[in-house]
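USER: Fancy drafting a protein?

ASSISTANT:
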Amino acid sequence: MGALLPAMTAGLAMVMVVMLVDQAFQRRHTFQLVWAIGMLFFAVASSCEALAELNGWSQTTYVIWYLTGAVWTAGWLGLGTAFLLGRTRFGYAYAFTLLLGGLFAFLTQRRYDYPDAGATPILYFIVAAILGVAVAVETYFSNERWPRIAAVGVVGATALSILLVATTTLAPPGYALDPATGQPVATLFPGSLRLLTPFLNVTGGLSLLFGAVFSAYVFMPKKRVLDYSLDPNQSGDQFLFNLLIAPVAFTVNFVASVPGAVRALMRGELHSRVPATILIAIGALVASAGDSLNRFGITAPFAIAKLVAVVFLLLGFLVSVETFHEIRIPFTKIRLGTASRERARRRDDSQRAAGSSDAPELTAVDRTTAGSHD
């Protein structure tokens, strides 16, 4: 019975992997392939947990579980969001998550004082800061290359984790479990590897969450209470002021827009991307909460949190227009359904918004996401 939850989680994650890979091959969008890689890691980690429930833990399942689940999954899912929103000014938010990830890695060492971490906390923080500044600068100049800089960080951290595992000898029996719950814990791994988890999890988890909220705001009816602009053509001091108030202004505007979105939902006029991205945001939040609790020794809700997270992520993916634009058997051209009517409505909404202060933001995201429907 203990294998049921992780087995269900792995199965649902693999369903999402198949759908994402199919879309990536059909529509040639990088973000779908990167998300598929992240969900594949999610499925592999859950499969390790299911196998361990049936056959017991081994060093192999323990190492694979830690790398794919604790280290890689969130970072790659967040990177997929970066590629999705690469044509927007979401790069500023991603740069912020990079800085937070480096800071959390440094503070984690201050709290737990891993004896074998050496200088890695400082190095991780410096690298995160450099990457964050580079992403912010590229975003400022409206350069769509900033997701590639983000990819350097995620791919580099992934490669480093493999190197650290390959050069580490785990103490017998080769795995460690919470004695109260039987859930695996990371105590056998060196501090230099364990500090990669806050770097990738904070950056990836927050990027997935912020990106979902950002996309929901773009496609909902907006009420702009606090005005701000991130136009790089304004004066330097004015730009810095707007950049500083942007998080507060965005939050206020989002909350103020919720009643209008609810009314649109009741009338059946709300764009399907709004509930879809909100479901994805909930999934990201649940997954991050489960990982955080597991890291601080609260392992009992870990398996349930992962299942709930993948359910919300899959539901968000299924609700999106992108999925239902063309319903067919994966990797074939056999169609099972017709295109959604929302494409024309989204185009009309974009035209009506063309004269508003939100138009540059809306148009930018539409250019990014609309291509995935064609």
Summary: The first helix runs from residue 4 to 27. Confidence is low (pLDDT under 50) at residues 339-344, 346-374. The radius of gyration is 21 Å.
